[in-house]
Design goal:
The structure holds 2 protein chains of 2 kinds. Chain A is α/β, with parallel strands linked by helices. Chain A contains 13 helices and 17 strands. In chain B, the strands form 2 sheets. A 5-stranded parallel β-sheet of chain B has the order 7-6-5-8-9. In chain B, strands 2-1-3-4 form a 4-stranded parallel β-sheet. By secondary structure, chain B is an alpha/beta fold. Chain B is globular and about 55 Å long. The chains are: A alpha/beta, B alpha/beta. Chains A and B meet through helix 6 of A and helix 4 and helix 6 of B.
Chain lengths: 423, 312
């Protein structure tokens, strides 16, 4: 395949063409020419853009993929389509499948079945068998099979001792443990942020402390084991402060992320009992939201995640308390941020988080937009308006709070693995 | 004064205005006169069909609604979860849509989940009245409580009302707070800290952890039932200790400097939150609450039915 992409402004701080308006020629998946004007007419697919920016492809950490086990929610094919539409050329997918990704067979299943995909799948192996938080899984084996990191995914690890041993164990291969902080004995049957909104709606609340108490624990266990920890998807200002203090001392080995919805909304979003806003971690109050943005800007939080969790309509379209947690997010993450956080975050900051810091945190090589490099590119226009309608959703599920919303900011195309997709 | 409600449903006190509450009280007063006549029935809701859907146990609320509906000459059907297909896994929306295919105009629903009525109001056409949704609201109870206080003391504005007991698990407490605050009363809650939500002060109420201090402060005490069935873990060590330190008995009442009006939404755990000699005393208006409950519910049904006709 020869592909000529015209009129793109490169946004890649590692490229000699950074901030230049150029054309890019890609042959057989490799960038072969970058220049002001490239004249080729034969055997080439040419796409001319307007006001478009090209950055290296984006990475989402903690994507729920559905398959195997929950194919009624999402398959490898649909999650790849959704990721690509959202600008993500790589996903580090969580192990909460059925079976969980706790042996090399599951890692291989995902790798083998996504070989032809435009999206690179990086399975995150389970820390514990079946993600039950009881017995460690064979993590060295998983590592050799290609697991990029280890986590029990959406199941936060409750047993302090097991997490300590896991952190210690993975040091032999410089492995990374990802934990979502959520103390179940404090959160109990809570469903939303504990605050004025939960009190006035009579919905059991999840105290912010149920998160920060585990953040503190995770950081202490990391210190003790001298290992690496990724605190996944924080939502409260206390967590931000704790991670900020930890990073002041330990510059490496502590990473964290925030779901994009928690950057955009506070808990007033649930006032009408709309279950599309019923997510974990919960949307917290305004001071939490603003401190998450601050944390992202000052580097306390490394990256933004989509917190993509597909749920079939039968489990979502219910009374609030019976509705399952989660929202799909791959297709709307970038657009919702550029629409709702225009004043808070620059395009450069968004790309820095989605493309660079996410890779640094999880230890993936950072691609570049330069001659001789493999083309792993996301093309977007931060000012283009478009409407996210239900019919166009690529994910197999449609549990999104943004249906029929008009966004400003659109992903126009992705290039990866010798493939090109335009939206 | 307004002549119609600002809303097509009664989902909670939170979603109605002070004018709505005053209008409901005014009509309730008229209906109270009606239900004390020798012929207690009026034809106001003829041709209106009401479904009482109770997905959670209820005795007095269900009876009170049914009586109110019959006094207004509505056609009534009853449905309760014990005899329903809900337990077979049918969704709320399917159950209600099935019932609505039978051309129902109004739905009175009790449901264990907070916000269930909200969910329903977005998906069906009928007018919906919340008869209790989990730990969220029980608006008609709050209306009848406030109405009963006003009836006895002549006003609500400026009165000090303390709600005593399990505030954490109580929809009655939440609706009462909303209603009394809208009517400009001063509101406090009292109970063991584990039964009081951490952020309750954000609703503009004071908090007491000592029952005597609370009653010294208050003009009115609305005493709630200890809802052990809503507590999946122990929030208090024992009923015995609760009764000793938060129960209201004659000695406590007599030790106060001034009289406190006692309300209870029922059913009472006699000898736990309230001793029998207080429950049955002149200071208690528990039975007035029950009578007023019918009048208030007639008023709500009547006013919402008027909106149905406007809509049609």
């Amino acid at each position: 395949m020869r592909l000529l992409l015209k009129k793109l402004t490169v946004l890649d701080k590692n490229s000699p063409h950074h901030q230049e308006k150029v054309s890019i020629l890609i042959e057989n998946g490799i960038i072969t020419k970058i220049g002001k004007s490239i004249r080729i007419t034969k055997n080439v697919k040419t796409v001319e853009f307007k006001n478009a920016i090209a950055s290296i492809g984006w990475l989402d950490i903690g994507t729920q993929i559905g398959e195997p086990g929950y194919e009624h929610r999402e398959t490898l094919e649909t999650v790849a389509a959704a990721a690509a539409r959202g600008g993500f050329t790589e996903i580090a997918c969580f192990p909460n499948t059925k079976p969980t990704i706790h042996t090399k067979s599951e890692v291989q299943y995902i790798k083998n079945n996504t070989k032809e995909s435009i999206v690179n799948f990086h399975p995150v192996g389970a820390v514990s068998k079946d993600c039950l938080g009881e017995e460690m899984s064979d993590m060295i084996d998983l590592h050799h099979a290609g697991a990029i990191a280890f986590s029990d995914g959406r199941r936060s690890i409750q047993d302090n001792g097991m997490l300590m041993r896991a952190l210690d164990y993975v040091r032999s291969f410089n492995g990374l443990i990802i934990n979502h902080p959520h103390d179940k004995s404090i959160a109990r049957n809570g469903m939303v942020h504990e605050g004025m909104m939960s009190t006035s709606l009579g919905i059991p609340g999840i105290a912010d402390m149920s998160e920060s108490i585990q953040v503190e624990r995770d950081l202490s266990l990391r210190n003790y084991t001298d290992s690496k920890i990724f605190v996944h998807n924080i939502s409260s200002k206390d967590s931000v402060q704790k991670i900020r203090s930890a990073k002041a001392v330990e510059k490496k080995n502590v990473y964290s992320s925030v779901p994009y919805l928690n950057l955009i909304f506070n808990d007033s979003a649930i006032e009408q009992f709309d279950a599309n806003y019923k997510v974990l971690p919960p949307l917290r109050d305004e001071s939490d939201r603003t401190s998450l943005i601050e944390g992202l800007k000052d580097g306390t939080i490394d990256c933004i995640t989509t917190n993509h969790k597909p749920v079939e309509i039968e489990s979502k379209h219910l009374e609030f308390s019976r509705s399952s947690y989660g929202a799909i997010g791959l297709e709307t993450c970038f657009a919702a941020i550029t629409t709702h956080l225009k004043k808070a975050l620059t395009v450069r900051q968004i790309v820095q988080s989605l493309a660079y810091k996410s890779r640094e945190a999880i230890g993936l090589a950072i691609p570049t937009i330069n001659v001789d490099a493999p083309a792993n590119i996301t093309i977007f226009d931060p000012d283009q308006e478009w409407t996210y309608d239900k019919k166009s959703i690529r994910s197999k599920s449609s549990n999104s709070p943004f249906i029929n919303q008009t966004f400003t900011g659109k992903v126009l195309a992705v290039v990866n693995n010798k493939k090109f997709q335009q939206f | 004064m307004a002549t119609e409600l600002s809303t097509n449903h009664l989902l909670g006190i939170k979603y109605i205005t002070k004018d709505d509450i005053e209008l409901i009280f005014k009509r309730a007063e008229e209906f109270k006169e009606v239900i004390n006549r020798p012929i207690k029935k009026v034809p106001s809701l003829r041709d209106v069909t009401i479904a009482n859907l109770f997905f959670e146990n209820s005795t007095r609320t269900k009876l009170s609604f049914e009586l109110a509906e019959k006094r207004l000459s509505a056609d009534v059907i009853n449905f309760s979860s014990s005899s329903s297909s809900v337990k077979k896994g049918e969704s709320l929306l399917d159950t209600v849509n099935n019932i609505l295919s039978m051309k129902i105009d109004m739905v009175v629903m009790r449901h264990p989940e907070p916000g269930a009525h909200f969910f329903l109001s977005k998906h069906i056409d009928a007018s919906i009245i919340n008869a209790g949704d989990g730990t969220h609201e029980h608006p008609t109870q709050a209306l009848l409580d406030a109405y009963s206080i006003q009836e006895r003391l002549g006003k609500i504005k400026g009165l000090k009302v303390v709600i005593v007991g399990d505030i954490r698990h109580s929809r009655v407490a939440l609706s009462n707070i909303m209603c009394l605050k809208k009517l400009e009363a001063k509101v406090a809650v009292c109970g063991p800290p584990t039964l009081i939500p951490k952020h309750i002060k954000s609703l503009g109420v004071d908090v007491f952890y000592n029952i005597k201090e609370a009653l010294e402060w208050a003009d009115v005490a609305n005493v709630l039932r200890i809802q052990l069935e809503r507590q999946d873990i122990k929030f208090i060590p024992s009923i015995r200790e609760y009764q000793q330190y938060f129960g209201i008995n004659k000695d406590l009442i007599q030790s106060l400097d001034s009289e406190v009006l006692i309300l209870h939404p029922g059913p009472i755990n006699r000898g736990v939150e309230l001793s029998s000699d207080v429950a049955d005393s002149d200071a208690s208006i528990i039975l007035d609450q029950v009578e007023n409950g019918v009048a208030i519910r007639m008023s709500v049904l009547y006013l919402l039915a008027a909106k149905l006709k406007i809509k049609a």
